[in-house]
Amino acid sequence: MGFEEKMQEIKGYLRRIELLGNAMGVLNWDLEVNVPPGGVKGRAEVLGYLSGEMYKLITAPEAGEYIAWLEQQNLTDPVHKGMLREMKKSYERLVKIPADRFVAFSRLTSEAQAVWAESRRRNDYEMFKPYLKQIMDFEKEFVGYLGYKQNKYDTLLDQYEPDMTTAVLDKVFGDLRDKLVELLTELRERGKAPNNDFLKGHYPADKQKALNREVLKLMGFDFNRGRVDISAHPFTTSFFNGDVRITNRYDEEYFLSSFFSAMHEGGHALYEQDISDELYGTGLATGVSMGIHESQSRFYENMIGRSKGFWEYFFPTVVKEFPNLSSARPEDMYKAVNTVEPSLIRTEADELTYAMHIIIRYEMEKAFINDEITVDEAPEVWNEKYEKYLGIRPKDYSSGILQDTHWSGGMVGYFPSYALGNLYAAQFLNAMKKDMDVEELLREGNLEPIHQWLKDKVHKHGAVYTPSELVEMVTGEPLNPQYFVDYLAAKLRTVYNID
Ligand code: ZN
């Protein structure tokens, strides 16, 4: 069989995985958006069955044979190299971990998620503690099967951020933490905090929806190839680049919550809508990592949505929907959306303190996996870190160690992606500014060149390049947290009237 012929066979196999994934995606989306309470159990069974089929497909004997064949070829095309890399990764992960341990872990995490929700509601850490211990034990067991080079935590990180290591993150996050603590102190001691009282008001959900539609159109979200629905937590999902869906929720006391979620999910959605048609059937028609995906959502939510130029252009559109804001100036909005305030809850944090929430979780996860803390000590360690980095201390478990769902779902190693997203985004912005006057384009409300730049440099490539390759290609250097610190310091010193 010739090279092209074999490649077509492999692509046919990868296409079957994509199609099954697509069907599961629709069922998952429907579960979050439409399924009535009585249908949840039945849907879980369908999804469980399809997960089993997916497992069989990924670990099928021909997959091992395809990987071996690809490894013998002298691959030069980046798409072919990417195919091999991604195929090998998902195959090895599944064949190295015994199937019965996978099943046990998946049972544990579905139970743990329900227990976590209840223990958070009751502020009862003891209730969740045995589950947390078992989950961390499982993660360590998996690392045992998969192996590691330097730090056990690297293996967990790699699932969400390929190539990222604890050695790099220790340096990057350590540096970031020190500089952000310094900036926070400066704002507190020398700055004048914005006044946000003018935002108080009533904001009907239908008006929020109309406004969010305007901003999504401005960003370049294609409503012909996407839609917006309602769910408990906003998310983005994609069934090919021709059907990319986002969800949102509406708080009638505070429209900015749904507004920034729309920009955030819209950023994820642009990435998925822009992926090249040619990548379907290669396993690469998806975002390359959680961190790069998050860089696109944060870029739109923060670098665009919290910029001065954007509000100068967009504020009149907001006033049209919400006349109660007519006496405010664009400048007031710009300042209000950039208020910094250390708080206990990650999901409500501002741009500066958000990174600190992530660094705390990173330090805790790394310590768990390397047996440096026990589940008994964990809540106190958590609280001490909040006191030390943010100057505040949780009064209960619910606003402390029990606040996030990730650990109960077995997603250990995921948190760093959130902070990496901010760092990549700032580095991309810096590179973009060399090619165009971003602030001027925002003032004119012309977001098209910005979108086109991201499409050409990042989006269309899907998962062809690893995150580190992509960052070097786009910006000419490896990940450098200084761009984020500089971006934030410049903006916040203006907002807080420090010269
Ligand atoms: Zn996101």
How is this structure best described in words?
With about 500 residues, the chain is an all-alpha fold. Helices cover about 65% and strands about 5% of the residues. The chain contains 20 helices and three strands. The protein has helices at about 5-35, 40-60, 60-70, 80-95, 100-120, 125-145, 150-160, 165-190, 205-220, 255-275, 290-305, 310-320, 330-335, 350-370, 380-390, 415-435, 440-445, 450-455, 465-475, 480-495, and strands at about 225-230, 235-240, 245-250. Strands 1-3-2 form a three-stranded mixed sheet, with helices on both faces. Helix 5 packs antiparallel against helix 6 (about 125-145), helix 8 packs antiparallel against helix 14 and helix 12 (about 310-320) packs parallel to helix 17 (about 440-445).
Structural class: mainly alpha
How many strands in all?
3
Residue share in helices?
55-70%
Low-confidence sequence ranges: none
Largest sheet: 3 strands, mixed
Instruction: Report the order of strands and helices.
Output: HHHHHHHHHEEEHHHHHHHHHHH
What count of helical segments does DSSP give? 20
Rg over alpha carbons: 23 Å
Distance between the termini: 69 Å
Q: List the strand order in the largest sheet.
A: 1-3-2
**Beta-strand fraction estimate:** under 5%
Mean pLDDT: 96
Shape: globular
Cofactors, ions, other ligands: zinc ion
